[in-house]
Amino acid sequence: MWHYYCSALRYDLYNVLPSTLAQELLAEVLSECLAILACRYSQSCPTYNRTSQIRIDITAILLCTENLLWSVCHSDKALLQPEEGISRWIFTIHSYCNTLLSILAILTSPLEKLYELYQNGFPECISSLPSESDNRCLLQWLRIMQSYLFSNASLSPLSSDKIAVQRHLKLLLSQPSYNWNLLLQMLVLQDCLIPRILLSDIYVDKEKIEDDVSAKEKTDKESKLVQAIVMVMTYCESLPRCLSAILEGYIDRHQLWDQLYNLSGHII
């Protein structure tokens, strides 16, 4: 029910308020809710019958929070490197989720395992609150709940192209309104991976188009897509490599080099 309430609140805020204000209010509500939940679960007394329910409850809370967190972040940096002075509510959301994760581990783990792990004291990440510069500890709960998107390997500069693009795409689709900055970042990310994928699926069969009206309509839409991508990349004057990275594969696939050469000859 809590997740349904937050989702409904998100829908109402996004349809009534400006994007920035809606995200800030939703982040504040989410942070305050997590503070109450963390306080209540930290005071719970687990029994043999209640342990599994506590484990399920906290796991569900963390998964729901991860789903909502994309909606309150306006950039990839705000999600992965929040600063307490700038992104206060996002920073506290991470902190409360790490607290819930610690509660989950302490209340539901076997006592002998807890003793083996903490007999020499608490690790540094647990014994102190996350600081602005220590994002490794701040994102610990995300690494556990969504290891595919937030593992140490996926967050490194040498991570897989597809993982970084998936994060940006999910962030873009979670915004309350069109975010052109995020869209442009996603288009040029990882050597223009998304535009290259879109253009790789375009195939033109002239003989089939002449006999099929639906195929002709589809081809017209694909042509408009190509024109839109080329137009956007043309305006990226600071990134001249983007346009060539997109068009090289497309021209090779459709064998358009001769036509391009003839066209350039006419222009000259």
Descriptive overview:
This protein has 17 helices and no strands. The chain has 268 residues and is mostly helical. The protein has helices spanning 2-16, 19-42, 51-72, 76-80, 88-108, 111-118, 124-127, 135-138, 140-145, 147-150, 152-155, 161-173, 180-200, 206-211, 213-234, 240-254, 257-267. Mean pLDDT is 79; it is low at 127-133. The termini are far apart. The radius of gyration is 24 Å and the shape is elongated. Helices cover 76% and strands 0% of the residues. It folds into two domains: 1-153, no CATH class; 180-265, no CATH class.
The coarse overall form would be: elongated
Low-confidence stretches: 127-133
Number of helices in the DSSP assignment: 17
Strand content: under 5%
What is the total tally of β strands?
Answer: 0
Please provide the ordered H/E string of secondary-structure elements: HHHHHHHHHHHHHHHHH
Largest sheet: none
Average predicted local confidence, pLDDT: 79
**How many structural units, i.e. domains?**
2
Helical residue percent band? over 70%
For the termini, the CA-CA separation is: 67 Å
Rg over C-alpha atoms, rounded to the nearest angstrom: 24 Å
Structural class from helices and strands?
A: mainly alpha
Question: In short, what is this structure?
Answer:
With 268 residues, the chain is mainly α. 76% of the residues lie in helices and 0% in strands. Helix 1 (2-16) runs antiparallel to helix 2, helix 1 (2-16) runs parallel beside helix 3 and helix 2 (19-42) runs antiparallel to helix 3.
